[in-house]
Predict the 3D structure of the following.
Amino acid sequence: MRTEKTYLVENKNMTEINQFETNPQSGSKAKFIIGGVLIVAAIIYLIASSATANAQYFLTVEETLQKSATGELGDRDLRISGAVIGDTINYNPQTLELSFTIAHVPGSKKELEAEGGLAIALHNAVNDPYRPRLRVVHNGPMPDLLQDEAQAIITGNLEGEVFYADELLLKCPTKYEESIPEQVE
């Protein structure tokens, strides 16, 4: 015959057995959740590190010169926009070395609109001797659209006061009046 004390001990033992049986499941769930969180964290880290490693900063000539003076640029790849100053274009067909100077063009749409549009802003940039300027060197064939007051979008590295362009994109101001590249704020 069971006494009340025996029943309590058996009940306690059953509770311990029930807890023991449910703990492996909750332990497995916890391990699964922790493993999932670690995998998601690793994926986010890989995406973020890849994005920052391949990031190119799109700057105006003025921003480039300011950041270069403070040492903020380092050896990053940059993308810069400016107005081509036509009388500075030099091309050597034997070595395929092309050099020219670009002048600062405002980066925001509001500033461009205040100047009267992209074509007028490019014209003003080229004709204003007080606008910041940057010398560009590029190796390759001379592009057909390389002319005075063209918008140049260049990708490459700044070394001292010279920008060595790996890629060169030129836009005719009258054709691409609405295409204003977004700038890094």
User: Anything to note?
Assistant: The helical segments are 4-53, 61-70, 109-115, 118-127. The first strand starts at residue 57 and ends at 60.
